[in-house]
From TrEMBL, chain A:
Bias kind Gly residues: ranges: 162-172
Keyword Ribonucleoprotein: no
Protein name, entry field: Gas vesicle protein
Classification via Pfam families: GvpL_GvpF
Domain of life from the UniProt record: Bacteria
Localization annotation: Gas vesicle
Annotated segments matching region Disordered: 153-191, 270-294
Alphabetical list of InterPro entries matching this protein: GvpL/GvpF (IPR009430)
TrEMBL record, chain B:
Pfam families: Gas_vesicle (PF00741)
Record's keyword annotation contains Acetylation: no
Originating organism: Streptomyces daqingensis
Cell compartment(s), UniProt: Gas vesicle
Protein name: Gas vesicle protein
Amino acid sequence: MADRAPGVEEQDTAQVCYVFAVGRGDAPLQTAAEGLEGPTGAGVRAVYAAGLGALVSSVPAGLYDEEGLKAQLEDMERLEALARSHHAVVASAYEHTTVLPMRLATVYLDDGRVEAMLTERKDEFAALLSRLEGQVEWGVKVYADPRGASAANLSEAPAAPGGSGTSGGGSSPGRAYLQQRRKQRNTHRDTYRTAGAVAERAAALADAIATAKVSHRPQQGELASGPGENIVNDAYLVPAARSDDFRAAVGGLAEDVPGVRVELTGPWAPYSFATPPSTPRQPGGPGEPDADGE
Amino acid sequence: MESDLTGRSFADAVEEGARSASNGFGEEDSLAGRQVALIDLLDRLLTGGAVLTGDLVLSIADVDLVRVNLRAVIHSVTPDDPAPW
């Protein structure tokens, strides 16, 4: 992954402090920082205060002030480079020690300001770190794909009997068309129903293992690659030792269900659980758009 | 990297990610070693993560604005290849 922000202006020498994550200020954190690079190529280091440590990297002020950040976040290529860089540091660090991932683009003026932040919020950080200790995040996405279901139906249904005249006496082309349309509508409705049932089952099985859950907005748009509509996009906090169980329980749920897909992503550093629990968003039950909706 | 953003290659990357996620625990199971789908990453980095109000941090409102704009960007990404379905 050679995704480094291009065109770093060298003449701008003022540096600010990009914060990736906060952990306990001990040896594993120091180890975690070694060998890592920030978004503009500078090394990652730990800034310590109040028994905590922040993983930071120096970045050019011009690229990370308010204007610079907005420009970066609104440009898809630069956004991806920054997101992947941030993720690379957080994920590597999390393999060494429990850290609290910061939201993308958390920037302080200098190390001193980072120390002050650590000191000011040390109780909150300590509580969150204890909560996340030994846990990882798994993503569970459920998709409804009526077209996939139709394709499966077609391949399962016996081919139209006979080829010449003997078939379906009196079935006019118009009637066949209407039958076909009705079948499609039914498939569409059934697929969403089945997907909803799969989603419920997945949630029940996941809840039995997970210690917390956060529902993300279902994925849409060009980046939401893959067939079908994403109807559930949840994140679960799972004890790392139970990752295998989690995957076994939830992963294969829809394997034999035409038109429904369950995708697991993970393990992740617990991004979705790094904020104090706020008002949980309703999972917004599986949508069933109009019969002919796309 | 540009090619990761559009069309076939991005879809392949997603598929790759899904495949590796369904394998047994192995090297690809490390948190850092996997190529993750950008959209899954953005779900987490733009709505998750601890939020600090620091010196140069965009205020929450600003981040929300960015996200709204971002959605527009995401929708305007035009794949070179037709969608794979």
